[in-house]
Specification:
The chain is α/β, with parallel strands linked by helices and about 240 residues long. The protein is built from 8 helices and 10 strands. The protein has 2 domains: about 1-125, Tetrapyrrole methylase, N-terminal domain (Cobalt-precorrin-4 Transmethylase, domain 1); about 130-235, Methyltransferase, Cobalt-precorrin-4 Transmethylase, Domain 2. Helix content is about 35%, strand content about 20%. Strand 8 (about 195-200) and strand 9 (about 210-215) form a beta hairpin. Helix 4 (about 80-90) runs parallel beside helix 5.
Length: about 240
């Protein structure tokens, strides 16, 4: 931890946090070393840390010797705690919003809070970092400049409609998926989009990272990949 603190103390680019500001902080998507010094500086010095899952964030902060009170801020309670956070900001507190992995608001909580801050004229700063969206696109090798980001597909309601709408999209489609629905999603891709070219990234940046590419039929019923962890799928129909 001495090296980390030395850099925070000596690096001129890292300045004091601005009072009454919401910092949207990107966290690692797997490998805990994929976090910026600026992100650690904000997490160390913020008055309030909002976490999608306090246990996940505690693990990350403990790794870097940061001791901080953490407030749970997951999707089901975001509407209940937003006004409390706004009051903290108006009182001059600095607030750090962090999700379990990657950049907050991208398929993670926080959009309601950020919108409220905009409406109230409060300061917001983004602390950039890892995103499974970017990493998967880089690893796919696709020579494209455009893509469509879906995020997680609805579990039940509007699921079929979502896949039907994919038929009208002519750029690569990026999907997030959990291990519980991976096999179903692969089969649905084949059902609605045929034997398209796909890229699968599993547990990106982690020890057991797995990167695969091929045609949908190659992965029907879970063939060729371990059904564990978090997945990113890229569908390329062109």
């Amino acid at each position: 931890m001495s090296d980390f603190n030395h850099i925070l103390d000596k690096t001129g680019e890292i300045s004091k946090l601005k009072k009454g500001t919401l910092y949207v902080v990107s966290s690692p998507i797997g490998n805990t070393e994929d976090i910026s010094f600026r992100a650690l500086h904000v997490l160390k010095n913020a008055d309030v840390v909002l976490a999608e899952d306090s246990r996940v964030t505690s693990f990350l902060l403990n790794k870097y010797g940061i001791r901080k009170k953490i407030i749970s801020f997951f999707s089901r309670i975001e509407n209940k705690k937003t006004d409390f956070v706004i009051s903290c900001l108006k009182n001059g507190d600095t607030v750090a919003l962090i999700s379990d992995s990657g950049t907050p608001l991208i398929s993670d909580p926080g959009s309601m809070l950020v919108k409220k801050c905009i409406d109230e004229g409060l300061n917001i700063r983004s602390v950039p970092g890892a995103s499974a969206l970017n990493q998967s696109f880089v690893l796919s090798g696709l020579r494209k400049t455009e893509f469509y980001f879906q995020g997680f597909i609805p579990v039940k309601k509007s699921r079929n409609k979502t896949f039907e709408e994919f038929r009208n999209i002519n750029v690569p489609i990026i999907i997030y998926e959990s291990k519980y629905r991976m096999t179903q999603t692969i089969n649905d891709i084949y059902k609605y989009l045929g034997n398209a070219e796909i890229f699968i990234g599993r547990e990106l940046t982690k020890k057991f990272e797995q990167v695969l590419s091929g045609r949908v039929k190659d992965f029907i019923n879970g063939n060729n990949f371990k059904n564990k962890g978090e997945f990113t799928i890229i569908i390329n129909r062109n």
